Amino acid sequence: MSQKCVKAYVTGHVQGVGFRYHTAHEALKLSLTGYAKNLPDGRVEVLACGREESVDALMTWLDKGPPTAGVDQVDKEGAEWRAVDGFAIL
């Protein structure tokens, strides 16, 4: 059971539409830890850590996001493994 962390930057109509809340809900369903936070440039940054298949599932979900959002692009990069408590909305 491989563990990994991925940081994603989501571009589009993703602020003010409940994107962080829905992302946290999906992440917790997948038993992931990390955070979702708004960035000043209008993107949302998501850090997801946990089982590799769960992180991949959340990354796939981010490509579409919740029905209230309009995702244009998701840039993903590997992140150093870190233990995070829960999934925070920052």
TrEMBL record:
EC number(s) from the headed UniProt entry? 3.6.1.7
Record keywords: Cell wall biogenesis/degradation included?
A: no
**Per its record, what are the GO molecular function terms?**
acylphosphatase activity
Could you tell me the superkingdom of the organism this chain comes from? Bacteria
**SUPFAM superfamilies on file:** Acylphosphatase/BLUF domain-like
The residues annotated as the active site are R20, N38
What reaction(s) does this enzyme catalyze? an acyl phosphate + H2O = a carboxylate + phosphate + H(+)
**InterPro entries attached to this UniProt entry:** Acylphosphatase, Acylphosphatase-like_dom, Acylphosphatase-like_dom_sf, Acylphosphatase_CS
Write one Pfam family the protein is assigned to: Acylphosphatase
Keyword field: Hydrolase
Acylphosphatase-like domain location, by residue? 5-90
Tell me its family: Belongs to the acylphosphatase family.
Q: What is this protein called?
A: Acylphosphatase
According to the entry, what is the taxonomic lineage of the organism?
Answer: Bacteria, Pseudomonadati, Pseudomonadota, Gammaproteobacteria, Vibrionales
